[in-house]
Every structure is written in structure tokens, then in C-alpha cells.
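Changelog excerpt

This revision adds worked examples to the README so contributors can see how folded entries look when concatenated. The first example is reproduced verbatim below.
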Amino acid sequence: MRKTVNKLIMKVKFLLIIGFCLSLSIRGFAQSTAQLLQKSMIALGNWEKVDHFEYTTKRMNLDKWQGYDFSNPLPEKDSFYLSFDLKGNRFLHHTQNHYPGGYLFDTYRLGRDTTYYVYDGIGSRTGKDLLNLGSSSFNNRKNALLNNFPYFILKQLLTEIKDEPVLTEENDLIISRKTPTGTEEYRFDKNTFLLKRISKIQGQDTLVQRFDNYSSSNGLMIAQKSSLERNGNLIYSDSLASFKYNKGIDNNVFDFPLGYKPVTEQTPKLSAKMLVKDVYLIENVDGDRNVLFVNMGTYIVLTEAPLSSATARSILEVIHTTLPDIPVKYVHLSHFHNDHIAGIAEMVKEGATIVCAESMKQPVIEMISNTDNTLYKTGKVNFSVFNNQKVLQDEQKKLEFYE
């Protein structure tokens, strides 16, 4: 009996030693995140020698939150141009967004002297204003633009991530990490070490950025195809039109446009202006939006819930200061674009009923679910939907809403 026990003990010890040795062996062969990032950056070519570059794509935009039909977004054929002077810390980003029906957004975003400017190339939205967004926005825009290129993504990641073993799945090498806003996963081709995909889970949203069909451009690897998805839906896809670097850059590219007047972007404190008795206007909400609210005696009717929950809270604060102790009973939403309805959850929390066309109900539900899913799950969202026309009235006022 004692011999049998001793044999079992020896066997267990032997297995533990083998397991420990295998563990050391696996660790010895495992690739660290730092090693993989460095290999991938080398595979992309010597981007460190790039002083300046120009990059142009043909973009197909399918963002359902900015289209004409939420359930069946039509592809927009857009253009994306970027001239970047890395050495001089300057950039010009020019986009043309072609909406169905011939509507065009022609936007220039200029970074120079560590200051960020925006202007409208055809003057249809902001006229001849050269909008100065200040120095605080400069780095944010600069980093956002460089995040279109794997090299700069990986260079930044290398400074932030802990050096841990890399995961392997079939033909992919995977780096995974937690961030203050969620989780991120970076997938690389096992053979070429090139970055294939970035997945980011942020709250209710899953964003996927893809890089495909790499080719060499004078020694630098550049993705011929790239795209962005949100929750499985394509937002945009880019096809490379041209890329060149260190070929000389025209300094006029970064000049201020002729005939435009400088305007400093300042966010004034929101306030209500009475248009006529009981009808109020809140102007310049986040720069270029106006919101109406009407005192119906025992309740308030508000138009729109723009941009974000924070913006909506600011609007509600103005309303309650102007008309204390009168509840916001109805919020009318004109259309489903996210810059008009993204703050609706805050209105619902106050007990407001949503007034909108029948066709808008599903987009609004989805927006509320994305913003504060508990509201819809607990049944606290009330709608007053209509087709063609909706009327709200008291003894003195009549409000008519049309689809």
C-alpha cells in the first residue's frame, strides 16, 4: 500500500515538473505585444522617413443616421483628400459629401500653427466664415486623421499597451486590451504581420475598422481598401485613389482661403429669447442649431433633441430657468438624423412624450436603446406618432406638425 502511494506521489511530482517545463517553453516561444507591433510597423515600411504625404480615396458612405431612408440607406459617393505635412505639423483635409437629390457638403478642415480651422468651400452652410476652433481641437483632429493609417495607429498603441503574450487564432495574431471606455482587439495577418482589423466595444456599440488589399507605394505598404462598421452595419468604405509622399508639397495648400473672414468659435451660454408671447427660441446650440419651445399654459412643447445627452441637459436647464415648474410634456422630432435626436433620452427621463411621424419611431427607439437601454426596457418611453399631420392645442394656441 505504501509503495503504491509513493508511486502516485512521484507520478504527480513528475507531471507537475513536465507542466512547469512546458509552461516555460510556451512562454519562451510566445510573442509579446511589443514584438508584434514592432514587426508590423517594419512590415509597413519605413514610415519614419515620411516628411509629408498626400492621400485621396473614393468613399462610399452608408451611414443610416445621415441618409434619407433609415431602413434602406442609399450609398453616397463621396471624396476624401488629405495633405499632411508631418515635419511642419500642418494638414488640410477636404471632403465632399454628395447626398441624394444633389445636395453637397464641401468641407475643408485646416490645421496650422497648432490651431484648427473649418470652412465651407461653396458657402452653402456657413457662408464665407473661417471658423477658428482653437488649439484644443488641433491635436484631436490631427490624431483622428492619422488613425486612417495603420502605422500611426500602431505607433501610438505601442506607447500605451502592456507587454503581454499575443493570442493566436487560425491565421490571425491578436492583441486584446481593456480601455476606460470598453475593450479593443487588433488582428494581424500571421504571415505578413500587417494589421487587418480593429474591433472596439464601447458601451452598446461595436466599431470595426478594416484594412485590406495592401500594396507597396515606393516602399510603403498602404491599404487599397478600408472601411468602418458600427454594430455590423457598414458606415463607409474607402477605395484608394492616390498616395504619394516626399514629392514636394505646395505651401499654398495650407494658406487661409481668400475672401473668408475669421470667426472665433466660442460656445456662449445658452439663453432663451421670446419671439412672441409664450414662444421662445434658443439660438446657436453647439454653434449652428436653433431650438424652439412653446408654453402651452400647463405644459411645454419642445422641438428637437440635438447632438448629445449633455446638450439636451443644457437645453432643459434653460427651459426650466425660463419657465420654472412647467413640465416638458412633448418633444417633437422633425427627422431621424442623429444630430437632431441624439439627446432624446434626457427628455424622456423628464417624462416627455415623443411626437414624431410613424416612420421615425424605429430610429428613435434605436437611438434611445443606444443611449440608455434601461429606459426602453422599463417601458418609460411614450410616443405620439402620426401620419401626415398632428395637432396640439389649448384655448389660445394651436400647434400643427406635418410629416
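The second example, added in the same revision:
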Amino acid sequence: MPCWATIFLWGISGWAFYPAQIASIIRIEPQASMIALSLNASSMYLGFAIGGALGGAVLATLSPNDLGWIGGTSVAASLLVHLARGWQARPKPVKIAG
């Protein structure tokens, strides 16, 4: 039974933020929301495919024990890209001459 509980919690944590993400995309540009939502879904499916291909390559060349650290490295790299992108998007303070 603990296995099912873990899978349940993993599923909830993985999809809990998806409705908020959709709402944010629609709020940014309501007129283009259909295109933006389809691009968002396409990018998610591309990520799923890349993850499956990477996992398959690991299993074909290394051992199943290597899946954890390679997956963790992928997550860490994604987090770094996200943080770097957020850093670039911050507004710069305006200096007012006075």
C-alpha cells in the first residue's frame, strides 16, 4: 500500500499547479489564449518525450541505478534555467535625477 500512496502523492504534486499555469497563460493574453495553451501543451509533451528518450538511453547504456542521479541532474539543470530566466525578467530599478 505505501507504493500506491507514493504514486498518488507524486501525481498530485506533479499536476497540482497545472490549473494555475493555465489561468496565468489565459490572463497574460486572452485573445491568443488558444494558441498559447496549445503551445504550452506541446512543450509539455515534448518534455515528456525527451525524458522518455533520456531514460531509455540510460537504460540502454548504463544501469537502472543511474536513472536517479541523471534525472536529478536534469531537474537541477531545469531549475537553473528557470532561475536564470527569472533573473533576466526582473525589472531594473529606475534612477530618478533629483
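Reviewer comment on example two: The chain has a mean pLDDT of 88. The radius of gyration is 19 Å.
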